[in-house]
Amino acid sequence: MASTTSLGVTLTVLLVVITPSAVLPLYHHHRHHHHDGASVGVVEAQPLPVSSYSNGKGEPKYTSLPLPEALKAMPYACDDDCVSKLRFKAWEMQGNCTTCAFAWPATTTMANATTSDIMGIVLYNGAFVDPRSYSVLASKLASRGVNVIVPVFPNDLATDCNGMTLEAVTNAFFPNVTAWMVAGHSYGGVGASYAAAATLLCGTSPRVVALGVIGSYITKMLQCPVPVPNFEEDDHLHAAVITGNRDLSINLTNFVDNLNRLPVHTTFTSIIGGNHQQFGSYDPSGRSRLRDRPLIDGNATISRDAQLNATADALVRTLLRATKNNDISPRSLVDC
Ligand SMILES: *[C@@H]1O[C@H](CO)[C@@H](O)[C@H](O)[C@H]1NC(C)=O
Ligand SMILES: *[C@@H]1O[C@H](CO)[C@@H](O)[C@H](O)[C@H]1NC(C)=O
Ligand SMILES: *[C@@H]1O[C@H](CO)[C@@H](O)[C@H](O)[C@H]1NC(C)=O
Ligand SMILES: *[C@@H]1O[C@H](CO)[C@@H](O)[C@H](O)[C@H]1NC(C)=O
Ligand SMILES: *[C@@H]1O[C@H](CO)[C@@H](O)[C@H](O)[C@H]1NC(C)=O
Ligand SMILES: *[C@@H]1O[C@H](CO)[C@@H](O)[C@H](O)[C@H]1NC(C)=O
Question: Which UniProt keywords apply (predicted)?
Answer without folding.
Answer: Signal
